[in-house]
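User: Is it possible to get a 3D structure for a protein together with its bound compound? The compound here is C2E. I've pasted both below.
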Amino acid sequence: LKKAILEGSLTLFYQPIIDLKTGELYSLESLVRWFHPELGFLPPSKFLPIAEETTLIVELGYWVLKTACHQLYQWHEKKLISQNVSINVNVAGKQFETVDFLSQIFDCIGETKLSPSNLRIEVTETIISQHPTSITKILKQIQDSGVKIAIDDFGTGYSSLARMRNFPVNQIKIDKAFVKALNTHSKNVKFLQGIITLCHTLDLEVVCEGIETKTQNKILTSLNCNYGQGFLFAKPMSASDFELWIKQK
Ligand code: C2E
Ligand code: MG
Ligand code: MG
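Assistant: Yes, that's possible. Here is the predicted structure of the complex:
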């Protein structure tokens, strides 16, 4: 993995996040992949846990951040996407523990001349609940710089509503498990309605992850969910496949 980072066999895929009202592209989520010389194409579940056990995740995370910002800037420059389209970058807990995490973020923005609001850091509820105080402080500094914060996989961790109230956050990404459950019981629709209403009351954007069917899309749009991500719109794509996808859109 160390070699892979140095030699460039890691790559980023990009998955569109769509404005459910207009159908327009709102943001892209960067998702790391590894083309392993012997094992072939590896999804993050096959190597991120190992990276997270060591400090390799810090190096990997910095590479992801830089690559994603540079890629977004290039697409803005080429006018392939509107200047408002942002990038969501996943961040691991250990990255918050490194002293230069903030400067890494600011360097990436500075180098690429992206507007800070074009970058959104995704942090899971689990990470937040593991280090609530220190992370809140760092996230506050990130948010003060204009960079946005999203809570990923919302609903699967243990973040309390009280914490959410005081937390520096701009976007809530509701986990795909809740979207999947929409098909099974009307209570699940009400549950999602409640979360979406709460988020809007707190001025938070809502993204639903894992939208696979037109029915799910219809229900979520009727619940005023702002944005959606899932195979219905597009799977995560290589940079070149994304360029083809956006040209056809
Ligand atoms: P995530 O951040 O929640 O990313 C969404 C995952 O859901 C992606 O899996 C994506 O391919 C998958 N997905 C998207 N739409 C659908 C759908 O409609 N149905 C289903 N069943 N799945 C869908 P992926 O790419 O395998 O990534 C898994 C996780 O690995 C991510 O979950 C994220 O937590 C982590 N990850 C990925 N890239 C990075 C990275 O650069 N850094 C860090 N720290 N974690 C990353
Ligand atoms: Mg994510
Ligand atoms: Mg997620």
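The chain has a mean pLDDT of 94. Residues 178 and 191 are 9 Å apart (CA to CA).
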